[in-house]
Specification:
With 541 residues, the protein is mostly beta strands. The chain folds into four domains: 186 residues, no CATH class; 108 residues, Immunoglobulins (Immunoglobulin-like, Sandwich), CATH 2.60.40.10; 109 residues, Immunoglobulin-like, CATH 2.60.40; 120 residues, Immunoglobulin-like. Helices cover 13% and strands 38% of the residues. The chain contains eight helices and 34 strands. The longest helix has 16 residues.
Length: 541
């Protein structure tokens, strides 16, 4: 045998170390319960290596590509059996790699980790029976393990074999203190191929809601995805929903994370949810996709679903009033005429999930008979005779369209209202007995005013507004048919001071199942007007 020159010997040793160290520069691919190996620390036996179990990636927003976001379970000289950091395990000496057994499925992987955790607090033991001595009961620190003994024992329990030394299944068959060591154990396990490592990503992740491209999102919207890690993986722990531009690719321009990720462990597959609260800044075309994280930190990205976000919502109200009587002669109109005010309120969804009012440029009101009314503000004041009103405002759908400019961007909006003549125009006349009597002369100051009105069958509540030149007096949801306003300020003028007193039911609306904002259905919308006025003496010059 030829003598090896010292320089060649050093080259061989250095080359071997490079082989051992090569793994430390690439992120190892793992599944829950895998065995992991590196060179050991103990003098004289360090070459035999150190073994541990890959525990899990906990999620919580930690970077899955950072090994320090992952955890192992090990038996160390100090502190014994317990959780450790995978990044530390990987970087502390020379990392030797990840190993597994081909026959493991999800349930056995879960059992491996569960068994390791049940030995928490056991001491580190290296000699004879102490190398693999489980606790008498879970979480009772009267056992001891060598590093490879802990790995061996957890696999034996998961595979259903006896753990007794010298007579067991597990990884190294019939192992004992002499025959078991990390190198032997690693040798008897399976090293995944590159294609097998690629297959470790979650098997399925699919956006369920929205279900197809082209859906228009106008406000708060619940996203839903399904994901599965198959029967052999670690199980899913986290789903993130992302909002990107139409030409985004998730790896190059991942967009913006939507809301809070849904984090919960699923055995094989489950549904995950998230709430999207878009704002005006999000209006436009987007792609929504999901990122699934399994319990070993492996990630898969779903196919995207293209959507259009249009957050500008419109509230429309129609107030229709029948003037039953007038006392202010200069403004007198024939009894029975109708005067109608159509107002539109435009709102945009804000970042807090509420609505901010925005100013309309214009809106258009079209009746079922095809008559178009145009306004360059947010209000239309219209007057009709009774016959004209009944001819124009028939039952059917009323279209309201308009536009709003926000930050130099024009939004087109549309809404539909429905008239039901059986409930839409109810008279709610004031009874004549009011206090003080109509037309009485009072001194400047204030007065108590009592109003009584006729009850309307089926009306749930009333909205009473007593207006004057002072602050209005308003009663919301008052259940009775009379109300006394106290200390009402009297307008001080040199002529007749009149108050318009009207009573109406509230405009009711229902929330549709297919939209996040109210679409008004007018159930009780009439306003019955009655003029109530008080005469005041003229002030002395």
């Amino acid at each position: 045998m030829k003598n090896i020159k010292p320089t060649r010997f050093l080259i061989i040793i250095f080359s071997a170390l490079l082989v051992f160290a090569a793994g430390s520069f690439a992120r190892p691919v793992t599944e829950k319960g895998d065995a992991v190996y590196r060179m050991g620390h103990i003098i004289g036996s360090g070459i035999l290596g150190h073994a541990g179990l890959y525990d899990r990636y906990p999620g919580g927003g930690l970077d899955p590509d950072d090994l320090y976001s992952h955890f192992t379970y090990e038996s160390l000289n100090r502190p014994g059996v317990g959780p450790e950091n995978f990044g530390k395990f990987h970087d502390e000496t020379f990392f030797w790699g990840v190993r597994t057994l081909r026959e493991l499925d999800y349930s056995s992987r879960r059992e491996i980790v569960k068994t390791a955790r049940s030995q928490f607090g056991c001491k580190f033991g290296i000699f004879f029976s102490a190398y693999k001595k489980p606790a008498s009961k879970p979480w009772v620190a009267d056992g001891s393990f060598r590093c490879d003994g802990l790995v061996e024992y957890c696999y034996e329990v998961a595979l259903g074999h006896s753990w007794m030394p010298g007579k067991n299944g597990g990884i190294v068959k019939n192992d004992d203190w002499w025959t078991l060591n990390p190198i032997r154990q690693r040798h008897d396990m399976h090293k995944r191929t590159a294609s097998e490592e690629e297959a470790l990503i979650p098997h399925t992740v699919q956006i369920l809601t929205p279900s197809q491209d082209g859906e228009v999102i106008t406000g708060e919207y619940e996203l839903e995805a399904f994901t599965s890690d198959g029967t052999e993986g670690s199980g899913i722990t986290r789903i993130e929903f992302w909002l990107g531009e139409p030409d985004d690719t998730p790896l190059e321009r991942p967009g913006v994370l939507i809301g809070n990720p849904d984090e919960h462990d699923s055995v094989i597959g489950d549904r995950y949810y998230c709430t999207l609260l878009p704002t005006l800044d999000d209006d436009g075309e987007h792609t929504i996709y999901a990122k699934a994280f399994d319990q070993a930190g492996n990630v898969k990205i779903s196919e995207g679903v293209d959507v259009v976000i249009d957050t500008l919502a419109m509230f429309t109200g129609i107030w229709i009033g029948k003037y039953s009587s007038w006392f202010d002669v200069p403004r007198w109109q024939p009894p029975g005429d109708y005067r109608m005010t159509i107002e539109c309120w435009f709102y945009a969804l804000n970042a807090e999930g509420g609505y901010d009012e925005v100013q309309a440029d214009s809106f258009f009101f079209t009746t079922p008979t095809g008559i178009l009314y145009t306004s360059d503000s947010e209000k239309l004041n219209l007057g009709f005779t009774k016959d004209e009103f009944e001819t124009i405002f028939t039952e059917g759908a009323y279209e309201v369209t308009g536009s709003v400019t926000i930050d130099e961007k024009v939004y087109e909006i549309a809404e539909t209202m429905q008239r039901d003549s059986s409930v839409a125009f109810l008279e709610i006349p004031l009874l004549t007995s009011t206090s003080p009597p109509n037309g009485s002369t009072v001194s400047p100051g204030s007065v108590d005013v009592t109003l009584r009105w006729r009850s309307i069958p089926g009306a749930e509540d009333y909205y009473v507004d007593l207006g004057s030149e002072g602050p209005p007096f308003v009663v919301y949801d008052y259940p009775g048919t009379s109300y006394t306003f106290q200390n009402v300020p009297i307008p001080f003028k040199c002529s007749i001071a009149s108050w318009s007193v009207y009573i109406s039911t509230e405009v009711k609306y229902t929330l549709p199942e297919d939209g996040p904002y109210p679409k008004f259905k007018l159930t009780l919308s009439s306003i019955c007007w009655d003029e109530y006025y008080l005469k005041t003496p003229c002030p002395e010059e």
